[in-house]
Each structure stands twice: as structure tokens, then as C-alpha cells.
């Protein structure tokens, strides 16, 4: 089964609005990462948050991690049409060896 | 897509033929990975390699083979034993001291008919 499950599966917003995506996971983790994938392209690493961190910022991105609820959220503020992409969370599970577990992703569409 | 190249971008093959996908990185990363992505799905790990001349199976290794003769290169062969080879294949690499921070190539879309 998928370790990371993103929610919602699809999100459509207007340019300038904020977009929030959530990720839930099942086991204990070392860290959690968010990636972006434009259609037909490779994944771009956005941000990594460690299990002992609660919040992290990078530009217009804000990631939170709640290890007690086994969940994370990705907030994109002041969205742009160029933010249109699929967003994946990936967990580095404790006890795993060089293995990331990816969710199915959230497809974000930002309408101009 | 960083310093990872995958070629070709699109690949077409007839059923029953083996095909090799190329992955090269100039990031001096020790670890390299191959993932498969199907439509609307997340990534699934096929094989990974931590060092030269060593590699391990991932979750869906059946029907695939790899080699790691050079640090920079990690080619993936999709054999005729792979039942559903049509997919998007992604290569990634990571440094030894932060193996989970993986950097991806642009991908190869393989279509087998």
C-alpha cells in the first residue's frame, strides 16, 4: 500500500489564491519531502522537512509536519499559472534502506 | 532536472524485444535509482545502487536488469519478461550523506506494442 497519500487528488484554483495539499503516511519516518512534476517531465525537489521539524519555508512554499498525526501539508501562497503541476510527497521511512515511498500526487491547476 | 540526463526521451519497441534506457549523472552522487511511473500513480522503485558494482532490487524488479560499472552511469534494461513495460521511467541520484534527497532526470517514456 502507498505510504504517502496526498489529498486532494486534484485541486483547481485561480491565480493569486493559496493552494494547500496534504499528505498522510503510516509508519515512522526520518524525513518527508515534497516534489513537483510538470506534465511528462521529471520530478523537481521542492523541500525536505525532518521528523524533528514542525515547519519549514522556502520562498512561496510552506511545509508543516505533524508526526503525531502522521501528516504533512504543503502550502503554496500567491499561486501562479506556472505552479500548475502534480505535487508528490515522499517519505524516508525509519528502517528502510535507500528507499523513498511516494504517494499518488495532487494535480494542481492554477487558472490565469 | 539538474545534472542527470536520460535518453532517449521517447522510446518505442516491439513486444519481445529487450530495450536499454540510459541514465548519466555529473553530480558526483554515489547512489542512483530507477523508478517506474504509471498514469495517475506515484513512483515505484525498480532498482537502486549505492556504489559502483553493487545494486539492489526495489519493489518491482521482475523483468528488469541493471548494471553499475561507472559511478556516473546506471543503465536499465527492460527485458521481454516484463509483462507491462509501457510506462514512464525516471532515474534519480543522491549523495551518500543525504541519500533520501534524490534528484531526478527528465524521464524516458517507453511504449511497447
Care to describe what's here?
The complex is a heterodimer of chains A (112) and B (113). Helix content of chain A is 0%, strand content 58%. The mean pLDDT of chain A is 91. Chain A is globular. Chain A has 112 residues and is mainly β. In chain A, the strands form two sheets. In chain A, strands 2, 4, 5, 9, 10 and 11 form a six-stranded mixed β-sheet that branches. Chain A contains no helices and eleven strands. Chain A has strands at residues 5-7, 10-14, 19-24, 29-37, 43-50, 55-58, 61-66, 71-76, 85-93, 100-102, 106-111. Chain B is mainly β. Chain B has strands at residues 4-7, 10-13, 19-25, 31-37, 43-49, 56-57, 64-66, 76-78, 87-94, 103-104, 108-112. The mean pLDDT of chain B is 93. The A-B interface holds A 2, 4, 30-31, 33, 35, 40-45, 48, 88, 90, 92, 97-100, 102-105 and B 1, 4, 6, 31, 33, 40-45, 48, 50, 56, 58, 88, 90, 92, 99-107, 109.
Summarize the structure in short.
With 112 residues, chain A is mainly β.
Brief descriptors of the model:
heterodimer, A: 112 residues, mainly beta, 6-stranded mixed beta sheet, 5-stranded antiparallel beta sheet, 11 strands, B: mainly beta, 7-stranded mixed beta sheet, 4-stranded antiparallel beta sheet, globular
Per-chain topology:
The complex is a heterodimer of chains A (112) and B (113).
Chain A lengths: L4 E3 L2 E5 L4 E6 L4 E9 L5 E8 L4 E4 L2 E6 L4 E6 L8 E9 L6 E3 L3 E6 L1
Chain B lengths: L3 E4 L2 E4 L5 E7 L5 E7 L5 E7 L6 E2 L6 E3 L9 E3 L8 E8 L8 E2 L3 E5 L1
Largest interface: A-B, 24 and 28 residues
* Main sheet makeup of chain B: 7 strands, mixed
| Record field, number of beta strands of chain A | 11
Low-pLDDT stretches of chain A are none
Q: What share of the residues of chain A does DSSP label as strand, in percent? A: over 45%
Q: Tally the beta strands of chain B.
A: 11
The computed structural class of chain A is mainly beta
Which stretches of chain B are low in confidence, meaning pLDDT under 50 for 5 or more residues running? none
Report the span from N to C terminus of chain A: 36 Å
Q: Roughly what fraction of the amino acids of chain B lie in strands?
A: over 45%
What is the molecular shape of chain B?
globular
The helix tally of chain B amounts to 0
Rounded to the nearest angstrom, the radius of gyration of chain A is: 13 Å
Question: What is the average per-residue confidence, as pLDDT of chain B, rounded to a whole number?
Answer: 93
Rough outline of chain A: globular
The percent range for helix content of chain A is under 10%
SSE string of chain B: EEEEEEEEEEE
Order of helices and strands of chain A: EEEEEEEEEEE
Instruction: Count helical runs of chain A.
Output: 0
Instruction: Tell me the Rg of chain B in angstroms.
Output: 13 Å
* Percent helix of chain B: under 10%
Amino acid at each position: 500500500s502507498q505510504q504517502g497519500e496526498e489529498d486532494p487528488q486534484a485541486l483547481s484554483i485561480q491565480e493569486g489564491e493559496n493552494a494547500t495539499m496534504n499528505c498522510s503516511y503510516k509508519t515512522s519516518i526520518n524525513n518527508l519531502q515534497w516534489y513537483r512534476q510538470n506534465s511528462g517531465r521529471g520530478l523537481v525537489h521542492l523541500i525536505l522537512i525532518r521528523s524533528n521539524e514542525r515547519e519549514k519555508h522556502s520562498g512561496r512554499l510552506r511545509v508543516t509536519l505533524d508526526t503525531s498525526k502522521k501528516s504533512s501539508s504543503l502550502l503554496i501562497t500567491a499561486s501562479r499559472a506556472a505552479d500548475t503541476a502534480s505535487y508528490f510527497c515522499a517519505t524516508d521511512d525509519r528502517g528502510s534502506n535507500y528507499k523513498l515511498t511516494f504517494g499518488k500526487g495532487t494535480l494542481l491547476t492554477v487558472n490565469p | 532536472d539538474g545534472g542527470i540526463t536520460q535518453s532517449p526521451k521517447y522510446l518505442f519497441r516491439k513486444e519481445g524485444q529487450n530495450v536499454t534506457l540510459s541514465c548519466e549523472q555529473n553530480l558526483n552522487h554515489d547512489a542512483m535509482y530507477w523508478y517506474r511511473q504509471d498514469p495517475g500513480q506515484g513512483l515505484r522503485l525498480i532498482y537502486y545502487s549505492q556504489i559502483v558494482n553493487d545494486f539492489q532490487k526495489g519493489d518491482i524488479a521482475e523483468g528488469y536488469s541493471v548494471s553499475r560499472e561507472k559511478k556516473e552511469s546506471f543503465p536499465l534494461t527492460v527485458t521481454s519478461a516484463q509483462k507491462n513495460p509501457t510506462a514512464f521511467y525516471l532515474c534519480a541520484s543522491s549523495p551518500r550523506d543525504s541519500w533520501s534527497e534524490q534528484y531526478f532526470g527528465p524521464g524516458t517514456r517507453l511504449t511497447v506494442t
